[in-house]
Amino acid sequence: MIPAGRAFNVIDANQVKMIHHSALRILEEMGMQIQNKKLLLRLADRGLPVDLENERVRFPSPFVEQFIADTEKYDWENVKPSIGSSAGVYHSLFHDPMTNQLVPWNEDRLAFYFSLARRMSHIGSASTLGSRVPVPDSLEALYERYFCWKYGATEGGSINIDEMCPYLYDLYQVFASERHESLQQVFRGTVYLVPAMKLGVHEAYQIAYFLERGLHVHIGSSMMTMGANAPVTLAGAVTLNLAEQLALRILDWVLFGEKHLSLYSSLSVLDMRSTIRPFGAPEMAIANLMTAQIARFYGASFSGHGGLTDSKLPSVESGAQKAMTALPTLMVSSSFWLDAGLLGIDEVCSPVQMILDNEFLSAIKRFVQEYEVTPETIGLELILKVGPAGNYVDKMHTVRYFRNEHWRPSIWSRQMLNPWLAEGCRLDVDKAREMALDIQKQPLDTSGMSEGLEQEVLKIIERAKRDLSN
Prior knowledge:
Elements: H1 13-30, E1 32-34, H2 37-45, E2 50-51, E3 56-57, H3 61-70, E4 82-89, E5 93-95, E6 102-103, H4 107-119, E7 126-128, H5 140-151, E8 154-155, H6 165-179, H7 183-186, E9 189-192, E10 198-199, H8 201-211, E11 217-220, E12 225-226, H9 234-256, E13 262-265, E14 268-269, H10 282-298, E15 301-304, H11 316-332, E16 335-339, E17 342-343, E18 348-349, H12 351-364, H13 375-378, H14 380-386, H15 396-405, H16 417-422, H17 428-441, H18 451-469
Parallel strand pairs: 1-10, 4-7, 4-16, 5-18, 7-8, 9-11, 12-14, 13-15
Antiparallel strand pairs: 1-3, 2-3, 5-6, 17-18
C-alpha cells in the first residue's frame, strides 16, 4: 500500500462531464491561434478545419473525443507514485548564504549552485532557463547551453529569437558528436504559450524550423492566471486549461507523432492589489485536484505545479506555502516534481532553501513508500503478549521494522526544549545556512566538458556574435 496517488474527488461526476463538454466547445468553436502557415497546413492535412487568413485551427468534438479514446490509457490503479526534483534557475537573483543578501549571479555562484544540487541526495541535478551570467541578450540561449554543459546542469531549452535557430542547430551537432549520440537524443528546445490558446509567430517559427530538421521542440502551456488571461473562477480556469492541454496533446501527435494524453495544471490567481501572479495561493492546489480528477476520468496521466512560494527568503511562509501546494498535489498524483531552492515566485534562488527543500523532499517521499498490512506487520501476538502498558523498544519486531517504517530527519528538530536551548537554539534555517557555507568552501564538483567541445561551442558563439551584430 502506498498513500500517494489515490483518487480524491473534489467535484461530482456531472461537474466533470460539464467541464469536459465545455472544453470541447472551446476547441470546436474558438480553437487555437497558430501564427505559422506551415504548421497550420500540417494540421489541415490531418483533417482539422484551418482558417489560414485568421491563423486559426479548430478541433471538432468528434475528432477530439476519438483522439482521447485512441490514446493509451494510464493505469492509475497499478502505477507506483514517485517524487523527482531538480534545482531550477530562472530569471532570478542569488541568495548569498554568507551575507543573506540577494545579489546578481556570476559564474562562480552558478557553478556552486549546480554543484550543491548534485550533493543533495533528494535533488541530485540542476537546470537553467536562459543564462544567469550576464551575456548579450541575443546570445543568451547559446550561453545557457555553454554554462550548463560546462558545470554539469541540464539546459531548459530556451530559443528566444528566431535568428538563434541555426546556431543552436550547429551547437547540438557538435554536442551530439561529443556524446556519440544522435541529434534527436541530445536536442532540447522549448517554447511556451504566453497568452492562452495562442502559439505566437516566433514560437511557431522555431517549432517549424526544427521540425523540418527532424527535431522536437517542446511546447509549454501558458500558466494561466485567473482573472487575467483565464476566467476568474476555478471552474472557468480549469475548463480553459483543459481545452489548452487537449490542444497541445493533439499538436504533439500531429507534429511529432507522440500520441499520448497527459494533463498539466499551473493555474494561479491575479492579485488585484499588486497585479502579480502568486505561487503561494491555495487555489493552485485546488485547481490541481480538479485537473487530476479529470485526468482519471480520461485515463490520462497528470502533473501539477506545486511546492513553490512567494516568500523572498527562507521562512515559515516559504515552508507553509510550499507544503500547501505540494502535498495535495502529491496525494492525488502518481508523480510529483519539485523545483528546489526557489523563492519569490522563481525570482530568487537560495542555496539555503535548496537544503531545506532537500529535507522536505526526504520527508514527503514517505508518502510514496510502500507499507504492508499483514499479520506480521500488525504483530497481533506480540501486542497480546506485551499486554497493557507494554513497552516495544526492546522487541525484535521493532528492530526488524524500525528503519523502513520511520522517516528520520537530518535538519528538522527532534529534540526536547532543554537540549535545544543548550545547543544554541539553532533553527532549521540556521543549520541549512551552515551546511551551505561549509559546502561553498569545498572544491567545486563540476562534471565539466572536454576542452575540444568547449572550443567548438565558443567558436559557434563567437560566430553568432559577429553575424548578429552586422
